[in-house]
Design a protein that fits this description.
By secondary structure, the protein is α/β, with parallel strands linked by helices. It is about 45% helix and about 15% strand.
Length: about 425
């Protein structure tokens, strides 16, 4: 039953290139915690291993690309289990049952048993080993030091831990960890507010601690960006791409809920999330506006955050589907939007010590390095400020403008640059 439902969710992914959260919420109502954990493992594990799985299956099936989608996804589901230490008998027999007719069942059964016997004879290239598309692997090799490519691939193939940001407006990190001790928590490695949940045995967002606004669920790289902008109490801050509000509410936290934050977004539903999160966290200095950061031009700000829309390749350890959704042409498409945001941000900044922090959760040079090069060549009144990432224990690759985070246990690939108005 669980494998059949996993197959149905994979077919939904095939059609939409993502799986809506509500699709899993339905199964939360009918499955035990153990079965829902198995369902998520089967679905996300298959998606995370998709490139690797297809490499194996192409070696075993002539004209694999012409295999009907229904059969292909059943095979992928079974192959994931075989390649990831599920009991072979269960992996094969329970997956075969998903097929609707005898012919398909026979094909699936024969192929999976063939995979069982021959998988150790097949040599994987580096990109397939980490289930990264060949085009992306080649792009990374051409763009970055080899050690960065290696850690990027390993991180993309892993599962990022659940990480919280302590809301220090209401509680200290130490006190929050004591209240959450049943979840087996530890301090994160980089953020002074971060807590890693070692045993998320139940959804933490249903706890009274979440409802009382004691924390925000936020990966650690994201928590670092507001710290780099370093807003002060009483300042005026613009967040140009704010939804759903993780960095926006952290800015308010750093400002001791004193000052003024304007939060922009073009999606009204996501903008409402900013408001709801601010209310839950006890923050009242955030004012939302339904407008693009490209168009906004109402006043000048001390500091501006551009957490830009991007291809999100750095989030693969959280959202493995992203690796199958992005193509190289998307780098240029997003870059154009990002440059418009940067140009407008510079126009909205006060001219005396104004600061912009630009960040993305992706690794393409077009969306990061080349954008910084573009604004440096088109604005003679800016300079790039060095960022001391050592104080956050972050290893990085410096491109002459900003920094690519080396990922680790809780840190995902991120890019950040700090831009200041040059008053000279």
């Amino acid at each position: 039953m669980v494998r059949k439902d996993a197959y149905l969710l994979l077919r939904e992914f095939d059609k939409k290139h993502y799986i809506p959260q509500k699709s899993f919420e339905y199964f939360n109502e009918i499955y035990s915690n153990q079965d829902i954990a198995l369902l998520k493992n089967l679905v996300w594990g298959t998606i995370r291993n998709l490139v690797k799985i297809d490499f194996y299956l192409k070696k075993l099936i002539r004209n694999y690309k012409n295999t009907p989608p229904a059969s292909k996804w059943i095979l992928r589901l079974g192959a994931y289990q075989i390649l990831n230490d599920f009991k072979p008998y269960v992996a094969v027999n329970e997956t075969v049952k998903v097929a609707k007719n005898r012919k398909v069942r026979g094909f699936v059964n024969a192929t999976l048993k063939n995979l069982l016997s021959k998988k150790d004879e097949i040599t994987l290239p580096e990109w397939a080993k980490y289930s990264i598309s060949k085009w992306l692997y080649d792009y990374m090799i051409d763009s970055f030091p080899k050690d960065y490519v290696e850690v990027f691939m390993k991180k993309s193939y892993s599962v990022n831990p659940l990480t919280l940001r302590t809301n220090t407006l209401k509680i200290s990190r130490e006190e929050l960890m004591e209240r959450l001790k049943d979840f087996e928590v530890k301090t994160s490695n980089h953020s002074p507010f971060g807590i890693i949940i070692k045993n998320p045995k139940s959804p933490i967002e249903i706890t009274e601690f979440y409802k009382d606004g004691l924390f925000y669920i936020q990966h650690e790289s994201s928590q670092i960006i507001p710290l780099i902008l370093d807003p002060k109490p009483g300042e005026s801050v613009l967040d140009m791409c704010s939804a759903p509000g993780g960095k926006t509410t952290e800015l308010a936290q750093l400002m001791d809920n004193t000052g003024n934050i304007i939060a922009l977004d073009i999606d009204i539903d996501r903008l409402e999330l900013v408001e709801k999160n601010a209310e839950r966290l006890g923050i009242d200095i955030i004012k939302t506006k339904l407008i693009s950061g490209i168009e906004y031009n109402e006043e000048k700000y001390d500091k501006i955050l551009i957490d830009a829309p991007c291809t999100s390749l750095g989030t693969a350890s959280i959202h493995p589907e992203v690796l199958h959704r992005v193509s190289k042409k998307d780098f240029d498409t997003y870059s154009e939007v990002q440059r418009q945001l940067l140009n407008n941000a510079i126009n909205n900044l006060i001219k005396e010590n104004g600061t912009i922090v630009y960040s993305t959760c992706t690794v393409s040079k077009e969306e990061n390095t080349l954008n910084m090069k573009y604004i440096s060549e088109n604005h003679d009144n800016i300079e790039f400020e060095k960022i001391d990432l050592d104080k956050y224990n972050i290893k990085s690759y410096f491109d002459g403008y900003g920094y690519y985070f080396y990922p680790d246990e809780s840190l995902i690939p991120f890019y950040v640059a700090k831009i200041k108005i040059n008053n000279i």
